[in-house]
Fold Surface layer protein A domain-containing protein.
Amino acid sequence: MSKRIRTARRRLIVPLFLLGVVMFLATSSGITKADKLTIKDIDTTFTSKNQPISIYSDPETTQNTGRTLNIDVNTWRTFQAAYNGNYATAFNLGGSQWVKASDSRPNELNVNPNGSFREFYSNGEATTIYSDPYLTQAIGKLDPSISHWEIIRVSNPTQADGTYSFDLGNNQWVGTTENARAINQTLFFQTGTKLFNSAGQATQTIDNPQHFTYQIFDVKTINDGIYVNLGNDSQWALFDSGTPY
């Protein structure tokens, strides 16, 4: 059975040591998620693993065309990506045929113990549960009355960086969605990142050019955005404005 977790005790903001070279970060655009997606030209591939993935006519993936990808094809060329902050949310396969980034399927995965994630935050969403790390065999939904879940194992693509899916125990696998996130134990935040209190009021900005890595103590939804707590109640940062490395 999937396990609910307790949130951590809040503390004063304390930066951890700098773990490595800081990659480009986009700072928070406000109290909610990014107001507008950023569209960038790319030349990479999208793997469907022969699944009938839905096609949308817009980068926000709100206009379902009613068509799906051909199940006889596994790999598709991508021409554009839509980003919300640092996170790719959709890919254009050409001719404004957009697919959700969360629908991408890796060819091969390695399953490993969880070592870097604090929790899976379902954000009140009845996230689909699968019996396999490839997220192809749906077996149920998460209880929407619970948002905090312990992560036992993770799956990592063999030929790419990152984490694809998360085992909440007993082969109950979930993936991130537009509304659900796997919350890291620590995150990089750039100097100038806006901080808020739990009521959604701006309080300060991060001003620490020597350290960028911060421990995450809690996570919650504030005005439709997912925020993580870096210390006390005046130190909530938009999750999507940070990056794990």
